[in-house]
Amino acid sequence: MLTVTNDTARGPLAHAIVDTLVHRIGKDEHAALPHDWLAATILTVRNEIVERWMDSTRAAHAAGAKRVYYLSLEFLIGRLLRDALANLARRDEVAEALAQLGVALPELEEIESDAALGNGGLGRLAACFMESLATLDLPAYGYGIRYVNGMFRQRIDDGWQTELPETWLAHGNPWEFERRESAYFVGFGGEVIGTEQGVVQWVPAEAVEAVAVDTPVVGWRARRVNTLRLWTAISLDPFKLDAFNRGDFQGALADQLRAETLVRVLYPNDSTAAGQELRLRQEYFFSSASIQDIVRRHVQYFGDIRTLPDKAAIQLNDTHPAVSVAELMRLLIDHHDLSFDEAWGITQKTFGYTNHTLLPEALESWPLPLFERLLPRHMQLVYAINARLLREARKADGVDERAIAAISLIDEGGERRVRMANLAFAGAHSVNGVAALHTQLMKSTVFADLHRLYPDRINNKTNGITPRRWLQECNPGLTALVREAIGDGFSDDALKLTALVPMADDASFRERFAAIKRANKVALVHHLRDAMGLRLDPDALFDVQIKRIHEYKRQLLNIIETVALYDQIRSHPERDWVPRVKLFAGKAASSYHNAKLIIKLANDVARRVNSDPSIDGLLKVAFVPNYNVSLAERMVPAADLSEQISTAGMEASGTGNMKFALNGALTIGTLDGANIEIKDHVGDDHIVIFGLTADEVAAKRADGYRPREVIEGSKELSQAVNAIASGVFSPDDPNRYRDLMNGLYDSDWFMVVADFDSYTAAQRQVDARWADRDRWRRSTILNVANMGWFSSDRTIAEYAREIWGVM
Ligand code: 26V
């Protein structure tokens, strides 16, 4: 790919890249491999970023500005080079300089590894927020863990998911700066002793050192560069020479190994008991290091710890960092000698908490004995906070013992557990949901009793996505067209996209819009051909469901409908079927049996359907391996139809739904999460809604829902379910899907059966709309035009004004 030119017309930037290659990478042009060029390019570009970074830091300091701290166990930032170049507005220039060296920038961008430090939506949201914070020129730090392996890499072997370590750091990481001087002790275990002066002291049994590794985050137009500070762990005694000299080589390194284990992998969000203790250690490790860093910075800049809430807003991204509440209390009381009440006032004013799921099994709680053994001082503080909370609750009207039990930080039903959501709620002045419906359900379900006690605390901040990465960078064709039509103000203010509304009625604009979608589909077709040997027709309707595999997201509903459609096409080949390509991608947690089986089913169905000549290519199905941010950046711009089909009430928001609509796909979806608000913005005629509402789901569950009767009453559904159950798609193991299908007959918690007919009807409505091409294109343009509100700039501006007080 890379040939060296002896071009005489090399500009200064080309010279600078070669200079970096020689002096920083230690290679000459002839010996340089693609990764050497990539590193040299990043290091060269980085120089400019670092200057903006220092300017930003200095300016915030000089202004005595309040800073935002976003604590998150996940940051799914993906690749950084294209993003950084786009936001610096230097991409053309760098491409030109590299061309002078015989190097193609897009090929370098393509070999950069994805920083896959997240499971899904929550982690990607954190990354979009970091970009918007910098774009809005708000001084902010993201705090998390620098996982050496991050999220696993998925391989599909004979249709089954295999998990492999993601080696994203294999070629080093030229973006990061290790800050050995910013290091903190983080203790675990041990005991709490009271001194004679009444001062409490925690004496941990073990400790590791948290070391900061910083990555610059470039905002749009490089207005500001903020810091993503990820912690790595080193042992205080990395090499025990005495043990080594005794011949105990492993023992000599044991401490270092324990420290490294702490930052090795990100836990999949639905993993079970395995690794529980390690997960709690990770949470405390990064919370403690981050809070110590924030307190240190505040005292250094402002002197008095009591002004912390005026100068720091700490946002907890879900409950993963909730132990920070107890950690700040510990530092304020034990190290800064504040009274409990004063410390509590400061803590509540400083923290905000964002909830991202209502699934009961996803609400974190820790067995009390584990919490107490690992964090004895924090346990005492949790009890003290709880005593105060319950005292307040008992004073309020109408709070009975049931309500007290629900409000308590300790779950006393069965094995006693510490409830992290209640701790986060109690310790924060703001508790927010991530879409309107989700926030309403927070008030009426999991937090109902806490909400009654503190009715002003819960608020909504509907999620958003950054239009830089999710339109400008991933869809350059559409971006160019939009720029030509309405100018380039939409990258600064996505609401300006509404200027496209009248263009929907312009036939020639529609043609050009459609040509860009087709070109994006062709690019995806080529990629999937090269990557997995697939042959797809770019003129078919591309129907895409890409997200974590989970029963509530109902990939199974989509697959069963695919089977029913396949059956219909076979029975009625004479009908005017719309050619469809069904694409799936997503990872299943390694311990989640049904999710892994659903991946296998998608692959089994794909094999059978794709090799059936009788349907004449009218239907193709594919499961694309190793879903990550970069794959999303390819698939989203190529989609015609976006599948957002969760059981109503279960998807807190969704953000993939926003990415697709912004790139001109129509949504088929339930009235769940942000789908509802998307519908309100794009208009009822430009989205396809089906299925039960959240209220109807709740009512049906309460009434004693009988899915068996529904299946038996629907010929299409029973044929599809029975075909899967009896091994039509798994002749090598006919019983493979028997239990999965029996689950639908017996309980069907996720209402796949209840929504099936409505979903099928909606899909045929999609076919009809697709057949009316002008109408389809009009709708897709109106989607793009009306999605500006879902920019994460809007979301962050709301957090900044209403929670953090920094705008
Ligand atoms: C966690 C767990 C843990 C154990 C069992 C099953 C389970 C299922 C889901 C989760 C999700 C954890 C939180 C999360 O990632 N929520 C996602 O956050 C996005 C950003 O707000 C939002 O768009 C998604 O709807 C929401 O699922």
From TrEMBL:
Q: Name one Pfam family in it.
A: Phosphorylase
Write the lineage as a comma-separated list.
Bacteria, Pseudomonadati, Pseudomonadota, Alphaproteobacteria, Sphingomonadales
InterPro entries named among the record's database cross-references: Glycg_phsphrylas (IPR011833), Glyco_trans_35 (IPR000811), Pyridoxal_P_attach_site (IPR035090)
> Which organism's genome codes for this protein?
Sphingomonas adhaesiva
Q: Which GO terms describe its biological process?
A: glycogen catabolic process
What does the record give as cofactor? pyridoxal 5'-phosphate
Q: Which family does it belong to?
A: Belongs to the glycogen phosphorylase family.
| Keyword annotations of the record | Allosteric enzyme, Carbohydrate metabolism, Glycosyltransferase, Phosphoprotein, Pyridoxal phosphate, Transferase
Protein name stated in the entry = Alpha-1,4 glucan phosphorylase
